Amino acid sequence: MGDPAAAWTAMGRAEVQRSGGWVPRPLSGGRELPLAWVRDGPGERTPVLAVPGGPGLASVLPYRGLRRAAARRGLDVIMVEHRGVGLSRHDSTGADLTVDDVTSTSAADDLAAVLDAAGVPRAIVYGTSYGSYLAQVFAVRHPDRIAAMVLDSPGLDAGDVADVRAHLRALFWDGHHPATARCAALVRELAAAGEDPLELSGVVQHVYEFAGSAPLERLLTARLRGRGRRSWARIAGLGRAEVESPTGQPLVFEPDLVRPIGQGELGFDAPPDGHPLDPQQLFALAPAAESRTPPYDIPAELGRFSWPVAVVSGDRDLRTPPPVAERVAELLPDAVLVPLAAHGHSALDTHRLAALNVAHIVEAGAHRALPGLAGRLAALPRRGAPALLGPVLRAGIALDTRLPGAPPTP
């Protein structure tokens, strides 16, 4: 049998050769990085520069389907393999980049270098999750390269941690929202009964984001009654492998060299506060990384972003929740908030058709129409592997929590 990693690398290189190229980027000590990038689309309109999240997600292979789907809809999409990740992980001698080579400012300058190589003066910049933060750093450093922006599930800085905690606890500890009040009561019961706080927090976040409050209530109820153990164990472990893995999955998710950006600039290294439902408990499992000071005060910079911006936010997003998106939209001079109902984090990853339609409308210069279209965008069919997680969770929970002898859940 052949080497799967080598085959995967060859596939990625073929994709770059087919639709993009490598841009030489200078490194310290006279070294050079061959930075990989790809482009799909007719090339007749303003391109969309799509920046994925992580930090640590690759662009070339994981988003092939997205780029093809975008091209079929007339969009011209450019993606850059983030330095330190995948096909942009090694310098010209084949050696891994160092942690010092991988900064948010150098990654932002890489985006500008690729636009230069592609002959693109300005682009629609679509950043999702961590990519929204990198898009904002890019905007500070290269404002003349931006025609418009989409900030999907945006983050600002380490100050988001307090908003994330407050939103999560308001829903699932205090029960301030009618749709989650029963879940909150069950969470409090489980916490009082000694449930592992890290597992409890992970189950709440994953089930609610991908499947909604009804399956979560069902699973929490079953847990209190000593049932649903299989679903609980599988869901509780969903986030741990990604955070605890030192190197991730080659050419798909490689967090090790980019981890300091998340730790310092986005607040992933903030310590747990000792109270229930703290997302920082999961990040505390990650390998230690050098912490960095953010290069800019992003909230203070947003008032200078003069171009149109669409801020996309899922109402079930617990990672960069609606209060953070609302704050981003309020700080921008020409922004609209696009709330997606029954949706979690990163439309670019989990609701591709909604994301592409948002990008198309922004590219057409009609971003102000988006709030009125939010309901129709959210109702579009969800496609791709990530979109299957919600139905799989709902079916698994229903099966695993069924009472003995009960008929199958319709």
UniProtKB/TrEMBL annotation:
Taxon lineage: Bacteria, Bacillati, Actinomycetota, Actinomycetes, Pseudonocardiales
Gene3D superfamilies: alpha/beta hydrolase
UniProt superkingdom: Bacteria
GO MF, any single term: hydrolase activity
Keywords noted in UniProt: Hydrolase
Taxonomic source organism: Pseudonocardia kongjuensis
One Pfam family matching this protein: Abhydrolase_1
Annotated ranges, domain AB hydrolase-1: 47-168
Entry protein name: Alpha/beta fold hydrolase
